[in-house]
Amino acid sequence: MTAIGFRSHDHAQCVSTTLARAERYCVEKKLKFTAIRRRSLEILLAEHRALGAYDLLAVLGEEGLGTAPPVAYRALDFLTSAGFAHKIEGLNAYIACAHLGADHAPAFLICTSCKSVAEAEADATEGQLGEVARATGFTIRRTVIEALGFCPNCQPEAPCA
User: Which residues of 26-59 are buried (b: 16+ CB within 10 A; e: fewer)?
Assistant: First the structure.
């Protein structure tokens, strides 16, 4: 399992590849990938940390793309519906999907220090949660997994022995 967000990578390539995938997907599905929607995804891709709707709106406003809250919320609704972004429930914020175009069950590793977020794969039907669900006759349709801790750059120093 690789957590995208905490490892080194070619960020410019990451952004351009993801934008190109999103554009192809919209053409294939006949979705309108407007300038505001595209720019919103680009803003989310610019950092590997979650942004709130008002953070997004501030950037859009500076660029003359709108200052009314519905501008950001409509763009974020489109991006999450299309699978281009995820909502981080615990932060009430959004992050670009690291596995764009793939049907997956993400888990989010959230650094409480720098607020960076890594997306990893998590299959809730496996492990203890899956076992409990099967034992009770429950069918899991969707999970939201968010773990809080420290990224590799923010790890606290180990106490002296």
Answer: beeeeeebeebbbbbbbbbbebbbbbebebbbeb
> CA 34 to CA 44: how far, in whole Å?
15
Rounded to whole angstroms, the Cα distance separating 54 from 128 reads 37
CA distances, 107 to each of 7, 37, 77, 86 (Å): 16, 24, 20, 10
Over residues 73-88, the pLDDT tens digits come to 999 999 999 999 999 9
Mean predicted lDDT score pLDDT of the chain: 86
Question: Does residue 35 carry a pLDDT above 70?
Answer: yes
Distance separating alpha carbons of residues 67 and 145, to the nearest angstrom: 32
Contact present, 140 and 129 (Cβ < 8 Å): yes
User: 3-state DSSP call for residue 152?
Assistant: helix
CA distance between the termini of the chain: 32
Whole-number Å distance between alpha carbons of 49 and 56:
12
Hey, what are 66's tokens?
């709108």
Residues 44-84: pLDDT tens digits? 998 767 899 999 999 999 999 999 999 999 999 999 999 99
H and E: helices and strands count for the chain: 5, 5
